EcsC family protein
Amino acid sequence: MDYALKESSTKFETILGTALKVPGVRVDREQFLLQTLGSKIKDGNIVNLAIETDPVTAGIPIDKLDKIANSLIKKRTTNTSMLSFAAGMPGGVTMAATIPADTLQFFGTAIKLAQELVYLYGYGEIGNANQLDEDIRRELTLYLGVMLGVEKSAAALRVLSTNISKQVVKRTSRRALSKTTLYPIVKKIGAIVGVKVTKASFAKNVSKAVPIVGGIVSGGTSYLSMKHMGHRLSETLSESIYYTDADYEKDFKEVCNEVVDVEFN
């Protein structure tokens, strides 16, 4: 990995670590499912089963989950657009010395939405008692990589995620990738996300030169970005429910090839 990517990786890790400390960014899986499914599903037994196992195992149709996902994306998209407008005005509050407030709130919203979507589609709790902080960050990096359209990140998510959906076909004959193999590709995904953040932040900072117009441009950019990001992840998660061994073999080869590229670049 060259110097520029290493610098971007470090910047992304700083943003991710800081965003995770912002109140309200972390999502409690049980409370989220109880509140979200409880308002959409009339049968309380199904809601309780979804919490104990996962929404798909509980028998909630995929098209129903997709509709709920769309409403969540719309809600978070609206929130980040409104917050970004305020942050896009000159003199916006900076929560960290090296991280603009709008960048921090945007990624905080993205992380929150990512957790909500993975819980909805059957993934387990992020940050359980058995997970180290670094493992949590790596998992979130995979989700954000998918949301930002980083190449191979969707394949990496399906193959490497420690919280892969219970609906994904699992065979004892499947080949495993060790954590030491996992780290390089996640590191590269984080670096690429860092590059995207740097470019986005630069564009937003230029737009702030004109007060009201700057706020509108910043809010509009956040709206479109969060909308596309949410749909990329929800579509990947929805499709993974029908994941087959053939799909796994294809993704496994992609990830292995990517690991080789990372090691030799």
Notes: Confidence is low (pLDDT under 50) at residues 81-97, 169-173, 202-221.
